Amino acid sequence: MSPPLTLLFLTSEFKGQAAIREAKRLGCRTLLLAHQKDQHAKWPRESLDEVFFIPTLLNLREVINAVSYLARTRVIDFVFPLDDFEVVTAAELREHLRLPGLSTSVARRFRDKLAMRQLAHDGGLRVPEFCGVFNHQRLREFMARVPGPWLLKPRGEASSAGIRRINSPDELWPQLEALGDEQSFFLLEQYLPGDVFHVDSLVNDGEVIFSLAGRYGRPPLDVYHSGGVFYTRSLDRAAPETAVLLDFNRQLLKVFGLPRGATHAEFIRAHADGQFYFLECAARVGGANIADGIELAAGLNLWAEWVKIELAHLRGEPYHLPKTRNDYFAVIHCLARQEWPNLDGYQDFEVVWRLVKPYHAGLILVSPDSARLTSLIETYTERFNRDFLAVMPARETLRE
Fold first, then answer.
1. In the chain, fewer beta carbons within 10 Å around the N or the C end?
2. Please, are residues 1 and 11 in contact by the beta-carbon 8 Å criterion?
3. In the chain, count of helices (H) and strands (E)?
């Protein structure tokens, strides 16, 4: 009998507990390398054989050295990233230790916002106009050709962190001057007002085997910078934009060449022309409790299935997607004025999950009726504004 496979989970954030539990349930030896700030978090210790914490996972050489030291006395079979920032780090570790899995070149397509735009554009997919922040004359030509405003985006941040709106060319140059040598790690992009959508997927053998489309109530960029109640919901399967988005997502992942794993892609439908444009795509499970909503509505845990897909490949076994349900979900949450907001007043049958986190209020709603969900979202977002909402300044970076 062959020894159990050893999976090293890598993360700078507290997340992915379901992936760890599933790996242990499937007979793996499980290791966790996480950020020191999360050493007292509620990790599933019963599903972890060993746990290690380091001050930061940002220094690649230090992470390689630490994992290589562990590998002296442990056979590591696979490195599994749980957070967006570790997607490339995990790939670098795999290549250093000569392990199977997503390569560094493919991983960077899902982390570098300039690279992913270039790749999508070259693949014939619609993207907002963009320009790398390298040659200043080309930036001038870009701003002369593409009407403002524009967005100055960090290439390596996650979500909406660090994005700055530029209203005129005169606003750009002081920003670049302040960035100094860091400016080449940014891109300038056409600002397209519109509605933002997302598609969450599982991929196996290069094919999308599960995907679910959703729509944000307000663009995440707007919520991130100006505050407000956040919500997202799964789309009505019969809505015309659902089929368009799922097809766009399938084309995108084919162009990106992802062999297997979980993805979270975002698209915008521009108000100006009604067309969908690609915004970004991550090679990991989506955040903001979207995965929880999918599990409660579809009966499919993306973290667990991602682990199953990787283990099936490592063991040379076929992977079979489980049967899913077709209910709809909505996630609603906001920063709260109260340390422990009281959600007892939200008692509709469709409320299936409540967030327990200081200074946050959150719910997940599930219904087989899309119209019923729409009605509840309208009522609950208005009530969240009145009962809980607090606003804080946006953070420049998520790497804190």
1. N
2. no
3. 12, 16
DSSP string, 145-172: HS-S-EEEEESS--TTTT-EEE-SHHHH
Q: Which residues contact 290 (CB under 8 A, 6 or more apart)?
A: 198, 200, 214, 232, 264, 331
- Residue 66, class by beta-carbon neighbours within 10 Å (0-12 exposed, 13-18 middle, 19+ buried)? middle
- Run of H or E including 132: strand 130-132
List, in order of start, the domains of the chain with CATH numbers: 6-101 (3.40.50.20), 129-190 (3.30.1490.20), 194-387 (3.30.470.20)
Rounded to an integer, what distance in angstroms lies between the CA atom of residue 290 and that of residue 302? 10
Residue 81 host element (H or E):
strand 78-81
* pLDDT tens column, 258-270: 999 999 999 999 9
Q: Which residues have C-beta within 8 Å of that of residue 312, sequence separation ≥ 6?
A: 204, 318, 319
Looking only at the bridges linking them, the beta strands covering 29-35 and 50-54 are: parallel
pLDDT, tens digit, 9 for 90 and up, residues 250-305: 999 999 999 999 999 999 999 999 999 999 999 999 999 999 999 999 999 999 99
* Global pTM value: 0.94
CA dist 188 and 167 (Å) reads: 12
288: three-class secondary structure by DSSP: coil
Burial class (CB within 10 angstroms; exposed 0-12, middle 13-18, buried 19+) of 10: buried
Measured CA to CA in angstroms, residue 106 lies from 209, 255, 283 at distances of: 19, 11, 10
DSSP 369: -
Pull the structure tokens for residue 266. 């975002």
